[in-house]
Amino acid sequence: MEYKWTVLANTTMGGLMASINATIILISLPAIFRGLNVNPSAPSNFVLLLWVLMGYMLVTASFLVTFGRLSDYHGRKKFYTLGFSIFAVSSVLLSLVPYNSGVSGAIYIIILRLIQAVGGGFIMVNSVALLTDAFPDKERGKALGLNQVAFMAGSFIGIVLGGVLASIDFHWIFIINIPFAVAGALWSYFFIKEEKFKGVRKGTDYLGNAALSIGMVLVSLGLTYSLEPYGSSQLGWGNPWVLASLAFGVASLISFVLIELRAKVPLFNLHLFKRRAFSFGTLALLFNTLARGAVMFLVIIWLQGVYLPLHGFPISSTPFWAGIYMIPLMVGFIAFGPISGYLTDKYGARIFSTTGLGVNIVGLLALTLLPANFSLIPFFIVLFIIGAGGGLFSAPNTKRIMDALPRADRGAGNGIRTTFANMGQLVSMGLFFTIAITIFSIMLPSVILQKTTALGLPLSIGQSLSSIPASGMLFSAFLGINPVKAFVSSLPASTISSIPASTLSTITADKFIPTLISSAFIEGLRTSIYISIGFLVVAVVLSALIKRRFEGTVKD
Fold first, then answer.
1. Distance CA 44, CA 30 (A)
2. pLDDT in tens, 504-513
3. Could you tell me the CATH number of the domain that includes residue 172?
């Protein structure tokens, strides 16, 4: 096989494995926590849920630039192969987590997922750099388009596969990674070439590494813990530790910029931001991720917590079916991702990346017009439009960012690109879940009291039910857990016997949850979408300002 196709095949498999791993975990969380015998919706365990959800992202957001620079200096093939190896070993260890191991088992999974993220980070920073090196400029867009289509396809394969495997045994969601990771390591070791870059000044920027890593970790931790209730508040924004983490994190990132500008051998050459294709392309990616990151997550919760239960799907199966209903998004991305990459090679990136962002705006505006209990055909069309916009934007924007980097800086440069995307995802989660939970906490208690009183539930029980944290309600919907049923089961037997049988049957039914949360949830979702459209408008302007004369492969 010609070398460039070997690289494309290997990096595509790596992207497929990483994306399957990300979504297979999300869809399997209920099975994991049931297998461990841990209630993820319990307030004391909520932090475990956050870490399983966001710990992997925290590592990849914090250390990718360092991983990229290590690869630039010491060999991309070496660290790319190491990434597969770490991923394989951690997957084996994750598959050995014992049943009914409780909180200690959850902590064990979290730690191993953090290690797995190190392997994933080495794969992520090097795959695009290796592809960019292997393909000539006139074929690079096509290669990146195919690679990123595989990444998108993997995210949906993970949802379906997770739904199937988790119903058998949650250990299988880790075992499935092992053959991919082993094959990737062997394939990379024997067939990927190690490139040497002449004239590269090597050195370790200890201060820059420390400042960037500490800053990213602290900001990521602050955003993660902002979603945990604090005191009487539904969110953690009043927590002094959250505020201190964000403040010191931002200060550390500012110090990183000052250190890099003076460093003899910087972690990343910040002067590359003077190249418009790199700086504006990276910022456009950041704003696109800010806009789409948590909003698409909220759409999945909409399906799981509102639409599917209203249509008779058992709440335990809604995570799986939500993934199935999101397939039009994948189809839209797959349909337009390779096309935009191919056309970018001929006509430049500007028209396709900018059009893709505009299509996203149209799709999100259409999403705000749908009611909570929507008709399927309009919903599928809207998802297809949003997926098509993502497909049009992704490969062209990636190509012009990577083309703007000298070969010797592509590992660290791709680390910067991916870090911006991951940080956009984290900020998006913190921002839009804050909006959704805030609106939830304002609207939901009165709705619960009104509906439960009308059903004849004693006022004291209705008030207790309305005090369930909004974050607990929201994440229960995501996990396919009925929080009202869990609440009732925790009541004394004498209290349960005082509730009329018809009322008890109504409030514990799966259809009761969506009737409670639908109006508050849709209000929060629409507010989030309007803000995300604002982010996309900024991304459109940035993308449009990168004229074709700023694009093209940089000469070393």
1. 17
2. 888 888 788 7
3. 1.20.1250.20
